[in-house]
Amino acid sequence: MDYLKEHLYLSAMLNSISSLKSVTCNDDNTDIMQQHLATLASKYHISNDNTTKLLPFIEKASMLALGSDSKTTKSSTERIQLKKLIPATCFILRNKGNSRQTPTSLSINKKQIEYNDIPATVSDYQKLWESLNSEFDKLKSDNYRVTSESLLSLLKKYTSTIPFTQSTDTDISLYDYAKTSAALAVCLYDISKEEKQTDKPFVLIGADISGIQNYIYQIVSKYAARSLKGRSFYLRLLTDAVVRFLLDRLGLFKANIIYNSGGGFYLLAPNTKVVAERLEETIKEIESKMYYAHGLSLYIAIDSIEIEANELTSQGKRNLCDIWKELFDKKDVKKSNKLKNLISADYASFFNPYMTEGHGAVDVCTGEYFQVGEDLLKEGELYPIRKTTKEQIKLGKTLQDNQLMIVSTKELPLPSHITHIEPAALGIHYYFINHGDNIYLSKIQKQDENVSIILFNDFDITQIQLGGNVIFDFDFYGGNRFECNKFNELCIKSKDGDFSRLGILRMDVDNLGNIFQYGLSERSTLSRMSALSRSFDYFFSGYLNTIWEETDKEHSVIIYSGGDDVFIVGDWSVTITLAECIHDDFKKFTCNNPAFSISGGITFIDEKFPIIKGAELSAKEEDTAKGHKCGTQNKNSLSFFGMAMNFDKEYPLIKAVKNEIVDLIKIVDLIKNDESLPKSFISKLLGHWENADIKCHEINNIKTYWMLTYDLGRMKSRIKNKEACKIIEHCMADICDKNRKFDRQEITTSYHPIELWAMACRWAELELRNN
CA-CA distance, 739 to 429, in Å (whole number)? Predict the structure, then answer.
């Protein structure tokens, strides 16, 4: 093991955060971190001369992390760390916002997306520095790797909202700078040992798993809630296992991960001969293990691209956005030639007839074939099922009460009732400890440094006793606190009947690929790319839990959230509210930058309708939203009932009219037992809408105008409530007006007013139904 390289990795991180200590005026206090670094150096016999030789790597890495081609200087009279952080999303497509983030420890509450311009104070940084030191003191180990990786987790917790800058820009956080500097430093160190130096010293490795959507939803309805949760989380573990497998084979660290979420990842590696050889071998091994574990259901496309040092500072022919796009295209090409290496090596197994286990038996839950020698297992009424399927169902149940996850490169001596998964036989083992199982943590602490303990959506390490050579980490996970076992438990029953419907919501960010490929332009640096990808993962994997809990956690469940998308099942009305809340908070999170928008689709199904078919229908609704155009704005829409509505221009007006219709129908004259607005208003309007023969958002059946006016005019003459009369008048006037108006308000839309009124009525009808 190269302890000098590990010493460099830790030194680069500590050098990056030295400015935080200086601004807190803690000169009289012992620097626990630097003191421990010296202790480790002494233990592993790293001399001062060796430490001095590492400084050029740290200085060069610092410049590259900031995208600078020369050493920067800091004014001794200005405490630049007192400037507040500009969120990573603010400068995308050259948007200039005034949003500033308050320096605080990381959490998933609303304060994290509430930006303000109140100046930061020394005490803000003092508290963060003291907390960082205190927790480091509890986690420090006599092992370089354990100390470094645990420190990186603490830096994420305490320095993600602190700017690091030695220039006028304050949009690079101290965490992203420290992480990127450490990754670049170890790359430069490995490159320096090469006999022949190259003008492209770095390699960007990227990967995407294809087939995710079909894999998640390719299940039967029995145990659907557990299966979907377990299956979606399994894919997250699979991606993580591939990343850890690569890091181990290439001799890299956690900081070398630029991005890892949503079934894809990017790693930074040195462009050495050893890495090139190992990468090619490792990719083939991963592809082989993936195929024998999942057949044609899942495929991972891994490719790489070499980078010049000056391209990280936008001084070369390409900037980082260009490189990102080239790698994206290379992965797409690889997807079109998937399993090429396996087919070349073993043509017969792909194209010659062969016998599967159980004479062609397939997993009744997923439709996957059993491999030769694979056991035919049972879970309740499900038989036969594969081992992976059984593990996923168990995992889905385990996640309901999950406290933490343990990751190890070898099997641990834990009881059989503790959920254990090894994705694709990659040698990475995941264990899930629930409340009450903490007694087994003492066994884990006796293991070597290949063990990590990961808390989900919880950053308080004091709740567990850590010690020994165990790496501490935390991660975000959407919806691990859910209570339902069957989807029909989510439905809110009508007070007057048994009417209920499930809603299936799918949402994702619009044009995210273009944002990464073109959004930062000449401002693209590894630190900014890292911050941007981390921001999306924080919102969808972490903060989304806050939206969910504050909306209605008892009547909805997050099946999947991560990367840039989300999949939620719940009561039909709750899913609409969730979509609206996610959109509103996403706008706040992205500083109202017009470069960002999010679209979604919802389908409403009976609770006995196959959830998998419902997922397909919601995907079609999402496609409708993605294809919607309102004025000059594309996407940024929500679709249900097959009609997309722009979140900012159409949806609010339709919702307001829907609410008015519902409220007026609910008003009843108790003496005469008359409705303020007859329910027949809805049925008549929808009847005329269906007969209007609408093409290209124009009414082709001209009789619609006078027939609708006649029907609604008679209805108005029979009611006395002024508000009810008013809404009928507005409806007739809107539909007959040549100008586009809705509820007599100007509206930017391509829809004919009768389509907008019909949408409001259909929505109101669903809300009013009781049987």
Answer: 64
Q: Tell me which residue of 330, 58, 337 sits closest to 189, measured CA to CA.
A: 58
Which domains does the chain carry? 3-83+120-191 (no CATH), 195-354 (3.30.70), 487-646 (3.30.70.270), 651-768 (no CATH)
Q: Are 736 and 720 in contact (CB under 8 A)?
A: no
Q: Give the phi and the psi of residue 98 in degrees, each rounded to 5.
A: -105, 15
What is the DSSP secondary-structure string of 276-293?
HHHHHHHHHHHHHHHHHH
Q: What is the DSSP string of 300-350?
A: EEEEEEEE-GGGGGT-SSS-HHHHHHHHHHHHHHHHTTTTHHHHHH-HHHH
Q: How many other C-beta atoms are found inside a 10 Å radius of the C-beta of residue 641?
A: 16
Q: Are 219 and 297 in contact (CB under 8 A)?
A: no
Q: Tell me which DSSP letter residue 421 carries.
A: E
Angstrom CA distances, 690 to 110, 444, 704, 763, stand at 44, 66, 10, 16
Q: For 641-677, what is each residue's pLDDT tens digit?
A: 999 999 999 999 999 999 999 999 988 755 555 668 9
DSSP per-residue string spanning 475-499: E--TT-----SSGGGGPPPPTTS--
- Residue 165 identity (one-letter amino acid): T
Give the H/E segment covering residue 566: strand 565-571
Which range (117-121, 352-356, 681-685) has the least confidence? 352-356
pLDDT at 75: 38
State the average pLDDT for the chain.
87
Residues facing residue 695 across a β-bridge: 698
Picking from 452, 483, 455, the residue whose alpha carbon sits closest to that of residue 469 is: 452
pLDDT digits (tens, 9 = 90+) for 75-112: 333 444 467 888 888 878 766 667 788 888 998 888 88
Burial class (CB within 10 angstroms; exposed 0-12, middle 13-18, buried 19+) of 412 = middle
Contacts of 460 (CB under 8 A, 6+ apart): none
Residue 436's SS3 state is coil
pLDDT over threshold 60, residue 72:
no
Q: Where are the alpha helices (DSSP H) in 336-432?
A: 340-345, 347-351, 357-360, 387-398
Q: Smallest Cα–Cα separation from 209: which of 297, 326, 280, 116?
A: 297
Cβ atoms of residues 393 and 227 within 8 Å = yes
Kindly report the length of the chain: 771
* Residue 340: exposure state from Cβ atoms within 10 A (0-12, 13-18, ≥19): exposed
Q: How many CB atoms lie within 10 A of CB 416?
A: 6
Q: Which of 265-269, 432-436, 442-446, 610-614 is the most confident on average?
A: 265-269
User: By the 8 A CB rule, do 533 and 524 touch?
Assistant: no
Confidence (pLDDT) at 510: 95
CA distances (Å), origin 28, targets 25, 36, 202, 552: 8, 17, 41, 50
Residues 6+ away with beta carbon under 8 Å from 198: 191, 271, 306
Alpha helices per DSSP H over 468-594: 512-518, 526-537, 544-552, 572-589
Reduced to 3 states (helix: H, G, I; strand: E, B; else coil), residue 535 is: helix
Q: What is the 3-state secondary structure of 41-90?
A: HHHCCCCHHHHHHHHHHHHHHHHHHCCCCCCCCCCCCCCHHHCCECCCCC
Q: Is the pLDDT of residue 548 over 50?
A: yes
Is residue 365 very low, low, confident or very high in pLDDT (cuts 50, 70, 90)? confident
3-state secondary structure of 628: coil
Tokens of 482: 């859910």
SS3 for 104? coil
Strands in 401-511 per DSSP E: 402-408, 419-421, 429-434, 451-456, 470-475, 502-509
